[in-house]
């Protein structure tokens, strides 16, 4: 929130200019400064600083909200987006919840990208909603998305309208990703609607580790900082715009403690593991002999969830998403 | 290349380069730093750090890319080929063994691998343009000096007043310590003098096959690729052919009962650029293929077969060869 | 543009960022109204650094996104329209072409994996030649960058391939009795060889350097439509004990390749070796592409070349592809060259070998079909 002249009696034009020259433009800037130091530095009355501080705090601080109110809010803004796959919907207690971050983790060719396509296709079924597909590798694939929209395949106009509401973006590093998320948030919070992004309901970020690994250098605190900042940003996006966020992650082997490399966990480490609300691990069923076509059955295990009991395993078929096994 | 010399875009100051230099031994290591690490060390923003990397990269590859046409016209940019002194075999190999890469000759025992290697050691001395001496590292058997002397007698006629025997450096190694010492210390020193233009290792399989149990496969793979990387470096740096002799092992998946495959598995195969295999052929069948114009080939005991398994520039092919006191000779393609 | 963005989300220098955070500048808004001198005084950084910071923070999001080419949001519908114009570089091996939907796709990463001697390098050389095929014959009429890390770029072979490509193109032109004067566009061996830009890299430093130089090179030469790296695996399989370094370098390279592919509209073809994976549970082993699991996520198409045990033929399978139909297919590159076929891979191998290889030939060029 930006500071404005006349917010309160102490906030006059003179005070405002003084604050501005000191680089204090937002309420957060103001509150994060020590009032005594501020009054000394800017040569203003301590009393004034304190009174502005009180007003700002009163206006901005979080109020306790009753659970009932929360429930009502949730009912009014919550949407459950189908994943387009009955098995996954069941696994996720209905589908992707807006305001939540869901992670799909799996090895290569376990259907992460395909499931993302299903979700995107399902999200734009509703005439008003749109989806954003962010990815470094350009993995968005037209045949797959058309396939996922098979139920309206005959209706050219419907397909077109749905396709138009899926936006795809290739970004190549984590800072571009930040810039993009910022832009989406800023655009969508503007008054005039619809913004460039339409009525956004689903944001997909593909292959998150690829964004993170290149910055993983010797400077561990910095890297962890970026990673947790990214987590916060995505959650903030989910919360403030009331969209569902879906990210894909890879798996890494767990070393040490006499483990075999059969046991695998989602990549990106501890810091990240706290971020997603829901996490599904995908595994190919059957022996995985390289170079040969494998069965299309994938075992999806819900390992972290805010609705369901975990672990919860279901088997889905990548070739036929409606088949339940 | 030292970092101190780096000068380039404005934002790269001498002090900065000195600060970087203090942290690493070579400027090319800058390329492996992540953007934030480099920014940390240099004080640049992440984007300028990227420019710095590009600058270092252009220093590391100062000439930039060459077009294939340029390489074609300039022979010094292309690998040269080590002739086998036999026109038939050379034809199959399109001129001989490539320099700058590792080539492998594999086969069962007594099928002529060592013969071919000895022959290469001599023919490298005939090549006046690229040739020179040879290093022969024995790990399996004692170096067959008598056979070499026999061959030298024949080769003396090809290059008179040249002491063939004096330009072959023989090393016997019996264990890994010896091999590592030889390949990592003595060989580079010898090659640095520029007289040696061929390295033969007979054989790589012996040591690597017997010193590891099945449980130590990871360790073996690691050691093998390290060993190969030293050979690669030497081959590329001195532009010489490196010939490795390999044994064979039974091929479980292949067609036929007697099919064999070169030993040491995929780890080694990935390191080899050209792979040649030798084998013995039943003599009764071989006699029928005898051609009248090969007058020398009268008393050969057995036919051998030389097959090209893979090479980037060669088609898989097989020819029959025989060995007599003047060396190994090819007869013709087996269709 | 909103200035409430945290400064930690900007690509700032970590040291400078730390200093700024210490004195309470945690939002872009708190910096934007200040002069560089003010910032430098309060945060204890130099004026130059402060200028840098301001420059980065003030940069519009749009310019930040577009700084490296077109990062404009496209709707799936735009992509559908673009799909029709998707260019492919033909391999002239019918099976492989159809498996990839018409050849190696431009703007995408294609990975070719295989044990030694399976034809990875042959496929790469063939592609480097094929990228030159003129547009009127259905090619992309481009040039190629060839990054060779294994010494597999042998000129003899390249010349051979170029010759037969030229010959074939001539035949196609004659057969079509085209009235157009194509002589000015005629393909020559020299033109092909002159359009293949080669880097020879001996270790991963040189490979990274070459990749670092790609954007400059591709900006200067817009004709380049193909980047080949043969092989990506070998520099990373020697002397790489530090696995986290390897992981980071590979991710960085992947980032660069994807950026190059998207921004310059080039196809990127990488070769990878195979490695043995021992399954602890079953106790047996099988071959999988090297470079680890994280790399496996990067490429769009992954072709695995193997030899069929029963009949010694080579086959290619699309191990990973976005489209489900392809993923499930099992392909065999047909054997036995057609007589008088022009494609050298097969001509060369087929005529003299019992191994009965490889890549058969497209009898007629697909442009004429």
UniProtKB/TrEMBL annotation, chain A:
Protein name: DNA repair protein rad51 like protein 4
Keywords for the protein's UniProt record, in alphabetical order: ATP-binding, DNA damage, DNA recombination, DNA repair, DNA-binding, Nucleotide-binding, Nucleus
Domain RecA family profile, first and last residues per copy: 77-251
Cellular component terms per the entry's GO annotation: microtubule organizing center; Rad51B-Rad51C-Rad51D-XRCC2 complex; replication fork
Molecular-function annotations in GO: ATP binding; ATP-dependent DNA damage sensor activity; four-way junction DNA binding; single-stranded DNA binding
UniProt similarity note: Belongs to the RecA family. RAD51 subfamily.
Native organism taxonomy: Eukaryota, Metazoa, Spiralia, Lophotrochozoa, Mollusca
Pfam families given in the database record: Rad51, RAD51D_N
Superkingdom of this protein's organism: Eukaryota
SUPFAM superfamilies: P-loop containing nucleoside triphosphate hydrolases
Cellular location(s): Nucleus
Cross-referenced InterPro entries: HRR_RAD51_Paralog, P-loop_NTPase, Rad51_C, Rad51D_C, RAD51D_N, RecA_ATP-bd
GO biological process: DNA strand invasion; double-strand break repair via homologous recombination; reciprocal meiotic recombination; telomere maintenance
The keyword Transmembrane helix is annotated on this UniProt entry: no
Species the sequence originates in: Plakobranchus ocellatus
TrEMBL record, chain B:
Compartments in which it is found: Nucleus
Record's protein name: DNA repair protein xrcc3
Protein keywords: ATP-binding, DNA damage, DNA repair, Nucleotide-binding, Nucleus
Residues annotated as domain RecA family profile: 78-248
GO molecular function, one term: four-way junction DNA binding
Pfam annotation, one family: Rad51
Species of origin: Plakobranchus ocellatus
Lineage per the UniProt record: Eukaryota, Metazoa, Spiralia, Lophotrochozoa, Mollusca
Domain of life: Eukaryota
An annotated GO BP: t-circle formation
Cellular component annotations (GO), alphabetically ordered: Rad51C-XRCC3 complex; replication fork
UniProtKB/TrEMBL annotation, chain C:
Keyword Metal-binding (UniProt): no
SUPFAM superfamilies: P-loop containing nucleoside triphosphate hydrolases (SSF52540)
One GO term of the biological process aspect: reciprocal meiotic recombination
PANTHER family assigned to the protein according to its UniProt record, in alphabetical order: DNA REPAIR PROTEIN RAD51 HOMOLOG 3, DNA REPAIR PROTEIN RAD51 HOMOLOG 3 RAD51C
Name of protein: DNA repair protein RAD51 homolog 3
Phylogenetic classification of the source organism: Eukaryota, Metazoa, Spiralia, Lophotrochozoa, Mollusca
UniProt keyword annotations, A-Z: ATP-binding, DNA damage, DNA repair, Nucleotide-binding, Nucleus
GO MF assignments: ATP binding; ATP-dependent DNA damage sensor activity; crossover junction DNA endonuclease activity; four-way junction DNA binding
Chief location: nucleus
Localisation per UniProt entry: Nucleus
Domain (RecA family profile): residue spans on this chain: 85-274
GO cellular component: Rad51B-Rad51C-Rad51D-XRCC2 complex; Rad51C-XRCC3 complex; replication fork
PROSITE patterns: RECA_2
Organism for this UniProt entry: Plakobranchus ocellatus
Listed InterPro entries: DNA_recomb/repair_RecA-like, HR_Repair_Mediator, P-loop_NTPase, Rad51_C, RecA_ATP-bd
The keyword Mitochondrion is annotated on this UniProt entry: no
């Amino acid at each position: 929130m930006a500071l404005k002249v006349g917010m309160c009696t102490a906030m006059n034009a003179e005070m405002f200019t003084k604050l501005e020259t000191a680089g204090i433009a937002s309420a957060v800037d103001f509150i994060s400064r020590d009032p005594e130091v501020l009054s000394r530095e800017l040569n203003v009355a301590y009393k004034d600083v304190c009174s502005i501080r009180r007003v700002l705090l009163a206006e901005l601080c979080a109020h306790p909200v009753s659970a009932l109110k929360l429930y009502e809010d949730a009912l009014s803004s919550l949407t459950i987006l189908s994943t387009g796959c009955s098995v996954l919907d069941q696994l996720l207690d209905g589908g992707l919840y807006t305001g939540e971050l869901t992670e799909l983790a799996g090895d290569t060719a376990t259907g992460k990208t395909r499931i993302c396509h299903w979700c995107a296709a399902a999200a734009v079924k509703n005439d008003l909603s749109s989806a954003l597909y962010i990815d470094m590798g350009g993995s968005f694939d037209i045949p797959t998305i058309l396939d996922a929209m098979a139920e309206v395949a005959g209706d050219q106009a419907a397909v077109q309208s749905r396709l138009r509401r899926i936006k795809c973006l290739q970004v190549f590093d984590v800072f571009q990703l930040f810039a993009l998320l910022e832009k989406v948030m800023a655009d969508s919070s503007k008054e005039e609607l619809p913004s460039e992004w339409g009525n956004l309901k689903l944001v997909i970020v593909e292959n998150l580790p690829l964004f993170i690994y290149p910055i993983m250098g010797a400077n561990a605190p910095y890297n962890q900082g970026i990673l947790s900042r990214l987590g916060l940003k995505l959650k903030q996006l989910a919360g403030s715009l009331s969209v569902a966020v879906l990210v894909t992650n890879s798996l890494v082997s767990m070393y040490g403690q006499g483990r075999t490399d059969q046991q695998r966990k989602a990549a990106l480490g501890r810091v990240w593991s706290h971020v997603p609300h829901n996490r599904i691990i995908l595994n190919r069923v059957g022996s995985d002999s390289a170079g040969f076509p494998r069965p299309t059955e994938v075992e999806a295990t819900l390992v972290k969830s805010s609705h369901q009991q975990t672990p919860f395993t279901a088997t889905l078929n990548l070739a036929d998403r409606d088949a339940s096994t | 290349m030292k970092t101190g010399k780096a000068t380039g875009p404005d934002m790269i100051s001498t002090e900065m380069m000195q600060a970087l230099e203090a942290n690493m031994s070579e400027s090319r290591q800058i390329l492996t730093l992540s953007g934030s690490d480099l920014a940390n060390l240099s004080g640049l923003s992440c984007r300028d750090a990227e420019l710095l990397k590009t600058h270092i990269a252009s220093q590391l590859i100062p000439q930039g890319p060459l077009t294939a046409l340029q390489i074609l016209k300039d022979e010094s940019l292309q690998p040269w080929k080590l002739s086998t002194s036999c026109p038939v075999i050379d034809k199959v190999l399109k001129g001989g063994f490539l320099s700058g890469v590792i080539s492998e000759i594999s086969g069962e025992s007594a099928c002529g691998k060592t013969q071919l290697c000895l022959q290469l050691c001599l023919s490298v001395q005939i090549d006046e343009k690229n040739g020179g001496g040879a290093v022969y590292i024995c790990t399996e058997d004692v170096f067959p000096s008598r056979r070499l002397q026999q061959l030298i007698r024949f080769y003396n006629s090809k290059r008179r007043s040249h002491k063939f025997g004096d330009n072959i450096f023989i090393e016997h190694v019996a264990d890994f310590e010896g091999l590592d010492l030889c390949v990592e210390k003595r060989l580079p020193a010898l090659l640095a003098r520029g007289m040696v233009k061929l390295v033969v290792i007979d054989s790589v399989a012996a040591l690597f096959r017997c010193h590891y149990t099945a449980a130590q496969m990871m360790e073996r793979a690691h050691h093998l690729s390290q060993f190969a990387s030293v050979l690669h470096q030497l081959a590329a740096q001195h532009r010489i052919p490196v010939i490795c002799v390999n044994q064979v092992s039974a091929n479980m998946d292949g067609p036929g009962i007697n099919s064999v495959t070169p030993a040491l598995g995929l780890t080694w195969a990935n390191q080899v650029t050209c792979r040649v295999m030798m084998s013995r052929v039943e003599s009764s069948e071989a006699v029928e293929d005898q051609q009248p114009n090969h007058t020398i080939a009268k008393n050969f005991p057995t036919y051998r077969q030389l097959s090209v398994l893979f090479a980037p520039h060669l088609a898989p092919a097989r020819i029959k060869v025989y060995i007599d006191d003047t060396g190994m000779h090819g007869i013709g393609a087996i269709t | 543009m909103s200035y409430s963005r945290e400064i930690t989300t900007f690509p700032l220098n970590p040291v400078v960022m730390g200093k700024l955070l210490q004195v309470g500048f945690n939002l872009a808004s708190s910096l934007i109204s200040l002069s560089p001198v003010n910032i430098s005084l309060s945060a204890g950084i130099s004026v130059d650094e402060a200028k840098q910071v301001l420059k980065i923070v003030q940069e519009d999001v749009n310019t930040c996104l577009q700084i490296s080419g077109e990062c404009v949001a496209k709707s799936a519908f735009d992509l559908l329209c673009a799909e029709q114009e998707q260019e492919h570089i033909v391999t002239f091996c019918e099976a492989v072409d159809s498996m990839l939907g018409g050849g190696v796709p431009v703007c995408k990463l294609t990975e070719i994996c295989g044990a030694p001697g399976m034809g990875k390098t042959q496929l790469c050389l063939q592609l480097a030649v094929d990228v030159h095929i003129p547009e009127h014959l259905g090619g992309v009429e481009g040039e190629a960058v060839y990054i060779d890390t294994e010494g597999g770029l042998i000129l003899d072979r390249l010349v051979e391939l170029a010759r037969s490509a030229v010959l074939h193109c001539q035949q196609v032109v004659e057969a079509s009795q085209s009235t157009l004067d194509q002589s000015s566009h005629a393909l020559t061996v020299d033109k092909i060889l002159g359009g293949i830009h080669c880097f020879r890299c001996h270790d991963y430093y040189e490979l990274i350097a070459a990749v670092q130089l790609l954007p400059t090179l591709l900006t200067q030469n817009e004709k380049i439509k193909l980047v080949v790296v043969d092989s990506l695996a070998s520099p990373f399989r020697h002397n790489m004990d530090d696995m986290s370094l390897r992981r980071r370098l590979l991710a960085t390279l992947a980032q660069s390749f994807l950026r190059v592919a998207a921004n310059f509209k080039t196809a990127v073809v990488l070769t990878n070796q195979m490695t043995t994976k021992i399954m602890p549970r079953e106790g047996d082993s099988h071959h999988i592409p090297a470079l680890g699991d994280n790399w496996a996520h990067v490429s769009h198409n992954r072709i695995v070349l193997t030899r069929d045990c029963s009949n010694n033929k080579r086959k290619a399978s699309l191990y990973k592809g976005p489209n489900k139909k392809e993923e499930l297919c099992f392909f065999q590159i047909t054997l036995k060259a057609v007589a008088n076929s022009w494609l050298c891979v097969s001509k060369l191998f087929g005529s003299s070998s019992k191994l009965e290889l490889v890549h058969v030939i497209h009898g007629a060029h697909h442009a004429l079909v």
